[in-house]
């Protein structure tokens, strides 16, 4: 049995206040890439300033599914995710149920 390493869905705040959603097997390393202007064209117009949300998934496929759900959310719902992680201090919050927050 092969044990897969976890993948993470993360949100990065840009200097203009917008939120970028992505996945990675190492969100801290990926955030550092975003800060250097590499890894996503999203940050060409407004640099990455903070890694504000991270949630863990058992594999890449599940992380991709959650990323799609989060990307469909309104900005206000994404801000609630960020706030919930700040308030609870939980580095790996529970995932959103299907259809929540849209």
UniProtKB/TrEMBL annotation:
Pfam families: GIY-YIG. SUPFAM superfamilies: GIY-YIG endonuclease (SSF82771). Gene3D superfamilies: GIY-YIG endonuclease (3.40.1440.10). InterPro entries: GIY-YIG_endonuc, GIY-YIG_endonuc_sf, UPF0213_domain. Residues 5-80 form the GIY-YIG domain. Belongs to the UPF0213 family. PANTHER family: UPF0213 PROTEIN YHBQ (PTHR34477:SF1). This is GIY-YIG nuclease family protein. It comes from Pseudomonas helleri.
């Amino acid at each position: 049995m092969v044990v897969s390493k976890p993948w993470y869905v993360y949100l990065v705040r840009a200097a203009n206040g917008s939120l970028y959603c992505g996945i990675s097997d190492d969100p801290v390393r990926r955030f550092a890439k975003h800060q250097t202007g590499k890894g996503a064209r999203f940050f060409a117009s407004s640099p990455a300033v903070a890694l504000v949300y991270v949630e863990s998934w058992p594999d890449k496929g599940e992380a991709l599914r959650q990323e799609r759900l989060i990307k469909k959310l309104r900005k206000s719902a994404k801000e609630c995710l960020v706030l919930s992680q700040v308030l609870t201090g939980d580095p790996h919050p529970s995932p959103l149920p299907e259809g929540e927050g849209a």
